[in-house]
Design a protein that fits this description.
The complex is a heterodimer. Chain A is of the alpha+beta class. Chain A has helices spanning 32-42, 83-98, 121-125, 182-196, 262-277, 301-304, and strands at 2-5, 8-11, 14-28, 55-62, 73-80, 105-108, 117-119, 134-138, 146-153, 156-161, 164-179, 202-203, 210-211, 216-217, 226-227, 251-259, 282-286, 297-300. In chain A, the strands form 2 sheets. Chain A has a 16-stranded mixed β-sheet that branches. In chain A, strands 14-15 form a two-stranded antiparallel sheet. In chain A, strand 9 (146-153) and strand 10 (156-161) form a beta hairpin. In chain A, helix 1 (32-42) packs across helix 2 (83-98). The longest helix of chain A is centred in the first third of the chain and has 16 residues, at 83-98. Chain B has a domain at 115-277. Chain B is mainly β. Chain B has 3 helices and 17 strands. Helix content of chain B is 8%, strand content 30%. In chain B, the strands form 2 sheets. Chain B has a 13-stranded mixed β-sheet. Classes of the chains: A alpha+beta, B mainly beta. Chain A binds chain B through residues 28, 68-71, 103, 105, 134-143, 148, 150, 156-157, 159, and chain B through 103-104, 121-125, 148-151, 168-170, 187-188, 207-208, 230-234, 236-238, 240-241, 245, 255, 271, 273.
Amino acid sequence: MSFILNGVEIEDTFAEGFSMWGSRIIITAVNRKWANVAATTMTGFATSVIACDCEAGIEREVPPEETPDGRPGTAVMVFGFSRGRLTTPMLNRIGQCVLTCPTTAIFNGLPEEEADEMLDVGKSLRFFGDGYQVKMRMDDGWLGRRRFWRIPVMEGEFLVEEKFGAKKAVAGGNFLVMGGTEAATLEASERAIDAIHTVPGVITPFPGGLCRSGSKVGSTYAFLRASTNTPFCPAIKHSFPTSQVPEGANSVLEVVLNGLDEDSVKRAMAAGIRAATEVEGIRRITAVNFGGKLGKYQMGLREALGGA
Amino acid sequence: MKELWLTPTQLPSIPVEAEVISPDVVTGKTLKEIEGFKVYVGNATYRLGEFFEVEGEVAETAADQMIVVDGSVQTVKYIGAKMTAGSILVKGCAGMHTGSQMSGGELVVEENTRDWAGAEMKGGLLRIGRDSRNLTGAAYRGSSEGMTGGCIVVDGDAGVEAGSFMRRGMIVVRGGVGPFAGVHMNGGEIFVFGRASRRLGAEAKGNGGFIACLGEVESILPTYLYDTTYTPAFMRLYLRQMRDELGIEESMNFIDAPFRRYRGDLAVGGNAEILIAEKR
């Protein structure tokens, strides 16, 4: 029930993903520093919907020649369980973290032709202008209608696109890196994250892309709906009755990723796993699932790796 | 794209009304039928073939049709009027009402146009290689809406009342504009790279409309209120678009320029903007 890749055992299992609504936005600013400040602030406390209002992360830095206003940009992706539960955190986060951030502007990063819905984000944010906002109409009857809002702010003017694309997306892509030492596990996981971020349309919402606690549904406490993934905690591998930590593994990190479609998530998982196996001291790579009972997507590691 | 060539032969001194010079009208017709199209000269009716030699190929759809007018036809009116798709190239000057009420496609005049070029335009691109006369992209008398979409580029100067009653769309004048540019405008954008004459934006209501002056401004109406001097991010979108889509490289000279913002016309409770680039 496993196979070998670069000398590392890969368990022949699957990551269980589930549907969420996803959106992609591009934040620009006068320089890279402020674009990243806004993006980092906006994607804070958005690791997991277990306790956050959404899942969000930075997809990539966008060079000036690819942004609508020619300034340095940062692409951010936000995921929520429904259109409403995506729109609200986007409104709150853009309103509190981007509108407030010096020199920023914000643009839709998921074109209408690729989106399932267009969310009225800028259209709602405009009210911050308290009546002095200006509607900006571009390209009517010519290049394709575009709409923005210009909102006066103390520093100058905040520019926001009227609608943002959203589509049914995939969350919960994952794999676990199990290593002999904490250092080797961390290095392999970091390399995995770097590799994942070469794939467009994917984010890793946890700190640095990594989740050290893991999570499982429920706990022994009635008031707690999720707890650490105890079967994969090396510190209790001989105490926990059904531990899944193999001999020789003393540290486990989970790489969690969300994407705009299943194919992107699978490609990113494959890139991440391949990168992780290149580090000495990795004992096994596996994935978390719930036997197919929880999520719609079953993303097999063997399949993602092209039958390796 | 199939090309239909119209070569002017003997044009009368009084104007020829030839709205039949449009991809929408010629598609699906034979050359003989096109030669037989009715055109009007004063109160008389003539055939198009009496003034133009007609050659080339005709497409099945307007989008696949290009019409080349091979010479100056400054007395021929309504070229490309109401066209919805395809393209027209006039290798010289064109007469009044060129591209008026067009809603799609591309119309290029290599030299000058006369009055009402692109009047009440709804969509598409009208490009004028030299000067356009008065009322470019304007509303016809009695109409409450001028341009409602599309883009007009004038590589030279434009006359009086450019963009009057403009509602949406964009006018870019690489030279100067005469008095009353953007009069009554209620949306849309006018960019003037040269000298902007007096009465700019008179009685403009706003609705997101603005006039961006990138050159000298003769005067600002007293009913426009100066707000601030700033570098608006939105301006970058237009300036980059002018470079990328219209080949207007000089727009990038203003990419980081501060603009003086005036709001008016307060005489009519308006909320339009005049943005004047600071000299650099």
